[in-house]
Design a protein that fits this description.
Length: 245
């Protein structure tokens, strides 16, 4: 493994704990993190894992971060004040907050049967996830796939069902689009959850839910599906408010 791929110190625990034996290649590089394909250690039940390594804070750019962080409770009053004042301690808490928030969210959603990667292990600056793909070849992002209208209709139903399951777990993705859905074995898999919000405590949750639904419908309409968002988001929110999901 070369230093140019990912710093060893950031992922040492995954080697020492016997999860991975080699980092093979980068799968996706974004503003917040880079995802790599890793060879799993024998006996782990998987041939590959996905390694998501977060960038240092100064190199990351969570757009409108405050919108997503409203309603999160980072800790005691000192911790909250440190995050607000962007002290060195506060920046460390914030960094860990994004990482561990995503891992915890994926754990809840996977247990509930949502179409998300299975979270495997988490470290100080990175996490291991189920590798979505076949024979070491990563699944494409949905934005890079051309669908027939019939397939688009089926996948639209999967996407809306995933949004519904997420909301039943009090989660709104808050940045859902064809760029963070993978397509493998005729099924969708939703990824990238650091900005996901808690529908119980974030005052922007209903608006973000409507935006997610609109983004999804817009993409599938471009692929030939009958995908008018209509009142789906508002009806879903009403069901959620009545605890009927």
């Amino acid at each position: 493994m070369s230093a140019e791929v990912v710093a060893y110190d950031e992922i040492r625990t995954f080697f020492e704990d016997g999860w991975i034996e080699e980092v093979l290649f980068p799968v996706k590089s974004g503003k917040e993190a880079t995802v790599y394909c890793c060879r799993a250690c024998p006996g782990r039940g998987e041939a590959y894992f996905a390694l998501k390594a977060y960038r240092p804070r100064q190199n990351r750019n969570f757009r409108n971060a405050a919108i997503y962080q409203e309603g999160r409770v980072p800790g005691d009053a000192r911790t909250t004040r440190a995050v607000r004042n962007e002290s060195r301690f506060g920046r460390a808490v914030e960094f860990g907050g994004w990482l561990h928030h995503e891992f915890a969210t994926l754990s809840i959603l996977h247990a509930a049967g949502a179409a998300v990667p299975r979270p495997v292990a988490v470290g100080a600056r990175a996490m291991l996830l189920e590798f979505i793909g076949e024979d070491g070849k990563p699944a494409p992002q949905l934005c890079n796939v051309r669908l027939s209208p019939g397939v688009a209709e089926v996948l639209l139903e999967q996407a809306l069902r995933t949004i519904e399951i997420m909301l039943s777990c009090h989660v709104v993705h808050a940045d859902l689009s064809a760029y963070n859905m993978l397509y493998a074995r005729e099924r969708l898999h939703v990824i990238d959850m650091p900005q996901a919000v808690d529908a119980r405590t974030n005052p922007n949750a209903r608006l973000l839910l409507a935006r997610d639904v609109a983004n999804v419908c817009r993409y599938f309409a471009s692929q030939g599906a009958d995908a008018e968002p209509g009142t789906f988001a508002s009806e879903l929110w009403d069901l959620y408010g009545r605890a009927e999901l």
